[in-house]
Amino acid sequence: MPQWVEGALVGRAGELSRLTASVDRAREGRPSAVLVAGDAGVGKSRLLTEVARHAGACGVRVLTGHCLDLGDVGLPYLPFVDLLRPLREEPPAAARRPAVAPLLAAPGAAARPEGADDRLQLFEGVAGLLGELAAEQPLLLVLEDLHWADRSSRDLLRYLLARLVDEPVALLASYRSDDLHRRHPLRPLLAELARLPGVERLDLAPLPDAEMADLVRAVAAGDGGVAEGVVADVVSRAEGNAFYAEELLAAGVRGGALPLGLTEVLLTRVEELGEAAQQVLRVAAVAGRRVPHALLAAVAGLDGPALDAAVGETVSRHLLVVDPDGRYRFRHALLREAVLADLLPGERTRLHAAVAARLRADGTGTAAELAHHARGSNDLPAAFAAALQAADEAAAVGAPAEALQQLESALTLWPAVPGQHAAVPDGEVGLLLRAAAQARSAGELHRGASLLRAARDLVAGRPDPALAARVHHRLAQLLLRLDDVPGAVEAAERAVELAPVEPLGPDRVWALATRARTAWAAGGQDDIGEQAAREALEGAEALGLEDAWSDTVISLARMTGGGDPGTRTARLTEALARARRAGDPDVEMRAAFNLASAAYEDGDLAAAAGWIDPAVRRAHELGVEWSYYPAELRYLQVLVRIGTGDWDGARAAAEELGRVPDTAAHVRVAGLHVAIARGEDGLTEQVEQAEAVAQRMGRASLLLSAGSAGVELAGWRGDAAAAVAVTERTVRRVREVWPLDFLVAVRLVALCVGTVADAAAAARATGDAATADRWVQTGERLAELADEAQAVFAEHVGPVLWEGRAWALRLDAERGRLHGRVDPAAWAAVVAAFDGRDVHERARSRAREAEALLAAGDREAALDAARDAHAVAQQLGARPLRARVEALARRGRLDLGLPGVRVADPAAVFTPREAEVLALVARGMTNRQVGAALYISEKTASVHLSRVLAKLGASGRTEAVAIAAERGLLP
Fold first, then answer.
1. Same fold, 273-343 and 906-966
2. What CATH architecture applies to the domain 13-206?
C-alpha cells in the first residue's frame, strides 16, 4: 500500500515548544500531561502529529489512541484499545498483565471480565503495563478527540493520571473546546484533571493573520503558488482556523469559486475526485474515522490496483491520511460528517450492511460496532442481538452508562423483532428491568424510574405475580432515592401483595425487605416495618440470600437505632461484609453509607471519614460512583472535610468528578460553601443556578445545600432581605418533600436570623426603631418555622442528634441578638456544641461570643475569643470571618497582636468635642438635639459634625457612624 506524508507544520512555534518540553521531561524521567484544547479544525491533530514525530526521533515510544463518534453506540475503552493495539504483537504484555487481555485481544475475541472487581484490576493492569513499558523506554501517550470519549475511558484516564506519577510517561490529550456545551460530560473531568500535579492545559487559539498567510502560502506552494488576493481572501474567511483555510484554498486554487459554507467546500473537493475515490470516501465515512485497508478493500468493490489508485487520489488531495499502522483516517472529522450527510439513504443502508457483513466474516468487530452497522443497514434482528451482547460486555467491564445505552437501543428495536422475544428472559419486562438496573448504577435515577414505570404498566394483569412483585419492589427502592416516599410506600405495599407466599422465592424476600425500608422512611410505621423485616430475615436465611439479609439488617439498624452504638456498628459491618460476598454493590454501598452516616450523626467525624474514604474508592473501582449511595457518600465526604477544616480536600471531593448526574448535583453544590466562606468572587450566578435546579428537582439534600449556600452568600454581603427570601423558599420546598423530617429548617433559619439580627442591630445603632422592629418581626416569623420543624420531628421521627441540637442552640443565641440581648453564655454553649465537629461554625460562634463578652465588659475574655476565631479564620483562608473579627477588634479596641489589625485611638483622630458630637449622632440625635445636650448651638454642632465627616471621608451622618464603628473610632 502507498504511504503519504503531510507537509511541515507552519506556525504554532510556542505551542510546539511547550509540548516537546513535556516529551523532554519524560525523557528525563519526570511524568507530565497536557490537555490540548481548540475548536474543530484549529490544528490540534496536526500539532500532536508533529510532537509524536519529534518524540520518535528522540527515542521515545509513541502510542496513539483515537476516540470515535458513533452516535448512540458506546464502545467502552475504545481509545485505549486503539492505543494498546501495537502491543498485540508482543505476547509477553498480555502474559504479565492478564487483566489487560480484554484490551489487548482482537475485538470480540477476548474473554471479558465477569465481575465488577475486574474494573480495578483492568485499570491497575493498564497502569502497570504502561509503567513497565516506560521503564524500558520513555513513553508518549496521545489520546485524540477526548470529547467523544466514553465514560469508562474517561474513568481510566483519570486513574492513569493519578497513578502514573513516577514513571517517564508524557500524555497528550486533545479535545474540541467548541463541542463542550454546559452539560458535556467531559467538562467536570477537565476541571479535575487540571488540578492534578503535572497536568497542564494548552488552548490553541486561532492563528494570527500573519501566520495564517504563511500557512496558506506554504500549502499552495505545491500547486505552484497562489495570488496574494486569494491569500487575503482565505485568511479573511478562515478566521484563524487552519483546517478551514486549507479547505478554502484547496477549493479555490483548483478553479472553482470559493464556497460560502464549509460543508459546501468539503463536498466540492469530494466531487472533484474520480468516482472510485469518492466511493472510497463514502465507505470510509460509514465504516468509521479510522479504517483498516482490508475492510476498505472488502466493501469498496474495487480490485487492488484500482483501490490503490483511488486511495492515492484521496490522500494526495489531503482528504484521507495514512496512519503508521496502515489505517486510513479522515484528515478531519468535519470532512467525514459532510460525506455522511451527503449519502443517500439507500446508499448508506447498503454500505452499513456491507461493513457489518465484513466485520462478522472476519471477527474483527465488537458487538457495539456490529449493532451500529446492523441498525444502519436495517438488519434489526442482528442489531438487537448485538446490542444485548454489547450491553453485557459493557456491564462486565464496569461501564453502566454504555450498557444502558445499548439496552435502550434494544428496547427501541423490541417491537420490530418479534422473532427474538422468546430468547429474552422475562421478555420486554426483563429487558426494562435490566435497563433500569444499569440506569441506577450510572446514577440516572429518573431514567431508571421511567423504565420501571413502563415495566409496571406492562406487567399489570399478567399471570406472573413474582415478576410483578420484582418490578414493584425495585420501583419502590428507586422512588425512595428520589424522595418520593408516598410513591415508594405504595409500590412496596403492592410488591408484598403480589409476591407469592408459597413457595417462598427471592421476590417475596426482597418485597418484604423493601417494605421495611419504606416503613422507616415514611415514619410512624415502625411496627409494620419491623414485622416485614423479621419475615424478610427469615426468608433470606432460608434461601441463602445474603444481600437481602444485609439490606434488611440495615433497615432494622436505622429503624431501631441498633441498640447501643457498638452493636449497631457490628451489625452494619456484618451487613457490609455479606453484601460484598454476595456481589451486590448497591447493598454494599448502602451498608457503607449507613456506617458513615451513623458515625457522623454521633459527631465522630474521624470514624465517619474512616468509612467514607474506602467506600468512595470502592465505588469507583466497581464503576458505580454515581449510583445513589456512592453519591451520598461523596456528599458526606464533602461535609466531613468541611467540618474538620480540610477545605481543600472538600473542594477536591466536590469537583474532581467526571459527569455528574442531576441526582448527585448536591455533591458539587456542597463545595460552593467553601468558596463562599473564603469570600471568592463570581459566585452569585453559580448559587442562583444551584437554587433553581434544587427548586425544580425537589431533592431535599440539594435543596439544603443550595439554600444554605444562598443564605450564607447573602449573609456575608449583609443582604438580609435576600437571605430571608432564600430561606422561606427553601424551607417551604423542603417541607413539601420531607413533611415529617424538615429539621434542616433549623440550620437555614439560624443562618438567616443571624443576618436579620445584624440588620436589626444596624437600625438600632442609627436610631431607626421602626426598621429595627420590622427586622425583629421578620426574624421571629422565621424562627417559628424552625420551632415547628423541631416539634414535628420530635413527634414523628425521634430524638434530635448533635447537629440538630447545635443549630438549635445557634438559633436561640441569634434570637437573643435579634432582640438586642447580650448573652455570652448562650454563645459559649454554641461553641461547645460545634467543638470538634465543625471548625468553621465553631469559629463563627466564637466571634459572636467575643462580641457578646465585649458588650458585657469582659475585655480579657473577649480578646481570647477573638484571637481564637481569628486564628481559625486565617488557617482556613476564611476572609469574611477574618474581616469580621478584625472589624470587631477595631471597634472594641482589642489588640490581636497581628500586623494590619491596629487598635484605633479616637483621641488621635478627633478632638474631644468632635468625639462627643460623633457619640451623640451615633445615638440617632439631630444637630439640634446634639447642641442641646452639649450646651452649644445647633450651628456649632453642625460645624463639628462636618469636620467629623471630612476626617472619615463620609458623605452623610449614617455613613460616618458606620465607618467610625468599623474602624473602632466610636467612643
1. yes
2. 3-Layer(aba) Sandwich (3.40)
Instruction: Tell whether the model's pLDDT for residue 362 goes beyond 60.
Output: yes
C-alpha cell at 725: 427570601
Indicate if the pLDDT at residue 553 is higher than 90.
yes
Q: Pick the closest to residue 401 from 151, 61, 776, 669 (CA basis).
A: 151
**C-alpha 450 chain-centroid distance:** 23
CATH topology of domain 273-343: Arc Repressor Mutant, subunit A (1.10.10)
Among 514-523, 582-591, 753-762, 897-906, name the one with the lowest average pLDDT: 897-906
What architecture is domain 906-966? Orthogonal Bundle (1.10)
The average confidence (pLDDT) of the chain is: 84
Residue 782 CB contacts under 8 Å (≥ 6 apart), including other chains: 724, 727, 728, 749, 752, 753, 756
Full DSSP string of 709-739: HHHHHHHHTT-HHHHHHHHHHHHHHHHHH-S
Domain ranges of the chain: 13-206, 210-270, 273-343, 425-544, 906-966
- Rounded to whole angstroms, the Cα distance separating 669 from 856 reads 39
The order of strands in the sheet holding 328-330 is 290-291, 328-330, 320-322
pLDDT at 421: 93
Backbone φ and ψ of 32, nearest 5°: -160, 160
Cell numbers linked to 147: 470529547
φ/ψ (deg, to 5) at 552 = -70, -40
Q: Return d(Cα 943, Cα 58) in angstroms, integer.
A: 82
**Alpha-carbon dihedral 113, 119, 122, 126, rounded to 10 degrees:** 150
Per-residue pLDDT, 500: 92
Alpha-carbon distance 552 to 546, whole Å? Answer: 10
Instruction: Tell me the H-state helices in 58-97.
Output: 78-83, 91-96
Strands 328-330 and 290-291: antiparallel
Q: What is the DSSP code (8-state) at residue 326?
A: S
The domain made up of 425-544 has a fold known as: 1.25.40
Whether residue 162 contacts residue 196, with contact meaning beta carbons closer than 8 Å, is answered with yes
pTM for this prediction = 0.71
